[in-house]
Amino acid sequence: MEQTPALVVACSLPLALRPLPALPTGAALAQSAHIAVQVLQGELTADERRRVEPRTEEDSAVLQDLHRVEAKLDLLLDLFAQWHQREQGLPPSVDCRWSVVDLQWECPALPPGFAAMTASESAAGQSAAGESAAREPRPALLQLYAGPRSLRPLELPGLFRAIAGPEGVHCQFVYAPLGDGFTEVLGRYLFRLHRREIAETRAASRR
Prior knowledge:
By secondary structure, the protein is of the alpha+beta class. It has one domain (about 10-50, about 90-205). Helices cover about 45% and strands about 25% of the residues. The chain is built from five helices and seven strands, in the order βααβββααβββα. It has a six-stranded antiparallel β-barrel with strand order 1-2-3-7-6-5. β2 (about 95-100) and β3 (about 100-105) form a beta hairpin. It is globular, with a radius of gyration of 21 Å. Mean pLDDT is about 75; it is low at about 70-85 and about 125-135.
């Protein structure tokens, strides 16, 4: 039975996918999990704001100066991230639904190297090829840039499945078992994206 995630965030992410001969195991899988946690923790740290309450007028003046410095650093980080991402050649952004279980999106065509089954094959298993694709999703490596300041992509091994329909291709990528640490930090990051989405919606409604 497939796990139903408690939180699914709709977002647009630059992402790319490539086939793998097999999913990593053992030390290779542990290394993938360790790097993924590092990348997500970096995204969380870069987005944090420490809130300090001034005790005196002098403290207030110092905090105002710190906020101005912070704003300038934010601008420099944004410019550097834009330059770095342009130099790296980001993959195209895709509208997707992101959870701690998987990533799902729609696309007009499949990524290179993957074969889709049709919707009828998925529903009824009418062909051997369709049955095989349904039972054995393809091992793949998902590469995505989690935030606008991302200097390093999040690279996740997992299983990719695609179902071709009349209006395009439905894609699903289920992560390999990367451990509780990965699930916890990804959940925190997704919750932050969710809160930001709510705040932006409220701000837009007040305009």
